[in-house]
Amino acid sequence: MKMAPDSDIDDILTEHAGREGALLPILHDIQARFGHVGEAVIPTIAQALNISRAEVHGVISFYHDFHTTPPRLPVIKLCRAESCQARGVEALAAAFADETRVSIEPVYCLGLCSVGPNAWVGDQLYARLTPERLAALVEQVA
Amino acid sequence: MTRTVRISNDALALACGADHVAAAFAAAGCVVERVSSWGMHWLEPLAEIAGEGFGPLTADDVAAVLAGTSALGIGAIAAHPFIARQQRFTFARAGQTRPLSLDDYAAHGGWAGLDAARRIGPDGVIGEVTRSGLRGRGGAGFPAGIKWTTVAKAPAARKYVVCNADEGDSATFADRMVMEGDPFGLIEGMAIAAHAVGAQMGYIYVRSEYPHAIATLRGALDLAAPIIAPFRIEVRVGAGSYVCGEETALLNSLEGRRGEVRAKPPLPAIEGLFGQPTVVNNVLTLAAVPWIMAHGSAAYAAVGYGRSRGTMPIQLAGNVRYGGLFEAGFGMTLGELVMEIGGGTASGRPVHAVQVGGPLGAYHTPADFHLPFDYESFAAADGLIGHAGITVFDDSADMSAQARFAMQFCAVESCGKCTPCRIGSTRGVEVIDRIRARSGRGADPVESLPQMHNARKGGRSLAEDITLLEDLCETMKFGSLCALGGFTPYPVLSALRNFPQDFGLPAAAAAE
């Protein structure tokens, strides 16, 4: 697995030097830059923040957002929370259960609860999804 | 003649295609202003031309709107019944200002609250907030004035104001609308809080699922920095954990730790962020403060019902015909909100259930439509108003599936610190599965061992499984450290008691 050059990690760590509670912002920046937070960077972060590797690992594994491996497929995040359930997202998700070209992952709530079902791809949001619109979205990102 | 068209750039409008509509108006030679959302979500993308509204639009509708032949006109927006029936304090500027325009903000009453706060001094501010009756809008309803007094009196060199913008509950979007539509209002509220308690630093903890809110807040903070100085505010981004909406988990997350709940006491007001006295308030609580300071506590307290004073931005969501943001004084009935304002279900089928207060709120039947919307009335009816999100379900919903989802959600999002929540939620899913499958439960291999003298050998019946679920809920309710485990029983038990038929039980069985 290809991991980030050390100098890039160092740049990110330098940028956050002296900040209070810097671990989450650091992890976000690393993931934004490299698509994931690999195991290899844990000792570097731990040393920079003067905490144990176990603490860094504990934080990475606690939060749903952080991944230790790069995503293998393009991701569509589909809101599966109650308001989207009330608007039929479960039937929609079931219809796409066999989709293999993209990863349709659940997200618990995009805050668009009056116009669901909703999805989030990259930096775009999509509301009022129908099977046809979700199929078009799958074609677009696959 | 160049016409000015106002279209929201709120995340919901964008998700509904507002950018395409805006581009079509611009291509037709109009001046397009991107403003905050009025909150009439079923009409998004909504275009406003000289006060008249048109929606929901697609780019194809633009020519007809400009030619005056569109059938999508709703007349004057301000006179629309959905807007005219509201009493907007926190959302007074909604739909009318460009979110990142300091000029628009000042022209619509912005900074008047902060000016008043600086005039009357910290003690005066706390007195006003206390007299206004403002209670925490995140769900707990704790009086803001008392919290601020505690922080103000705590002796410490460093103090913090933390805004809880981890709006994870389904059916809630009012925080997002404040952050995206009126970010200076939140910043002003935080600056007033900091002035009152003597804090130097503020953090806004926003969930990562709200990228537009994060970008807008960061832009607004750059612009407002000189106005709120020497107080400073930084935006921090969550990482997909629901439990970080709990205030002590949020503080741990801000400190760069796992978002595990802390035992209380010590209260965050005494030992909060980095062990220092900290005000932790929800977005809506802080965003209500500038209005109170500008108009006086008496004007705020004059609105409301019982011990719930002022207004609440209520969020109508799920299978509802007219979904959106409806700010009103406490005290409207649930039925008025769902049937009159919300117009019943979007699908046109009968309303089956209404969940009030997000994933941890109870499922109500239309028999509860008489309940006035306030903290105490819902608590008395075994429910809660939480962050005032209302999710409507039609009669195709299976409430036993919703009860299972509540337990499953708790299992996935539990921070793991306390046993009732961590293990109880998983056992809860299993028990509900057995009840739904009507399978009962036989003795397992360990229970069948001859040396297990005290274990049951006969298995468990359906009725016993229901009693077990109720016992489990009792344990979670009173034994959990925070509201995640403590309130998950609300949706589960309310579904069981109010919708026994969905569990395949006779109506009377579960009521006993």
Q: What does this 3D model show about the protein?
A:
The complex is a heterodimer of chains A (142) and B (512). Chain A has 142 residues and is α+β, with helices and mostly antiparallel strands. Chain A has 2 domains: 6-62, no CATH class; 75-141, Glutaredoxin. Chain A contains 7 helices and 4 strands. In chain A, helix 3 packs across helix 4. Chain B is of the alpha/beta class and 512 residues long. Chain B has 4 domains: 4-84, Glutaredoxin (3-Layer(aba) Sandwich), CATH 3.40.30; 102-301, Rossmann fold (3-Layer(aba) Sandwich), CATH 3.40.50; 304-394, Ubiquitin-like (UB roll) (Roll); 399-511, NADH-ubiquinone oxidoreductase 51kDa subunit, iron-sulphur binding domain (de novo design (two linked rop proteins), Up-down Bundle). Chain B is 41% helix and 15% strand. Chain B contains 20 helices and 16 strands. A 5-stranded mixed beta sheet of chain B has the order 2-1-3-4-5, covered by helices on one side. A 5-stranded mixed beta sheet of chain B has the order 13-12-16-14-15. In chain B, strand 3 and strand 4 (52-54) form a beta hairpin. Chains A and B meet through helix 2, helix 4 and helix 5 of A and helix 1, strand 12, strand 16 and helix 16 of B.
